[in-house]
Amino acid sequence: MAVVLKRVYEKPSTRDGYRVLVDRLWPRGLSKESAKVDLWLKEIAPSNELRQWFHERRTQWLAFREKYVEELAEAEKLAALEQLQAVVKKRKAVTLLFASTDVEHNNAVVLKELLDGMKKPPRSTGGGASAAVRIAKRQTQ
Questions:
Q1: What sections of 72-125 are H helices per DSSP?
Q2: If we measure between CA atoms, which residue out of 77, 74, 42, 62 comes closest to residue 123?
Q3: How far apart (Å, rounded) are the C-alpha atoms in residues 140 and 104?
Q4: Do 79 and 43 meet the contact criterion of CB atoms below 8 Å apart?
Q5: Does pTM surpass 0.85?
Q6: Residue range 19-67, pLDDT digits in tens
Q7: Which has the higher per-residue pLDDT, 140 or 98?
Q8: How many other C-beta atoms can be found within 10 angstroms of the C-beta atom of residue 4?
Q9: Largest CA distance in the chain
């Protein structure tokens, strides 16, 4: 299982494998044909409130991660995370697509870390973190 990250605006490649868009909003100026997205999992994206909060506070990366992991414990997001893990388990290669220009600080980065089995994102605490971590552990078993 290989999970990689890629901006959705980058040219699709056969090495991408199964392409999953993990943003809530469709990328501006990009047609569905040219994006070559196999699955759009908008339910897994941060809430509009969290997305806007982080957009205004780009220096608050650790706080964003913590809040996002907590959101991933909500029923709809948890179901989407389990769906994503099932996709990853079935495929040889999965590419998580995102629109952000910041390739190091976005929700896809957090998702990849969870999918790769990271025990816990730094400074994440509480029920949301443990629920997301439990799901990540299930995938590796």
A1: 75-90, 107-115
A2: 62
A3: 24
A4: yes
A5: no
A6: 999 999 999 999 999 999 999 999 999 999 999 999 999 899 999 999 9
A7: 98
A8: 13
A9: 40
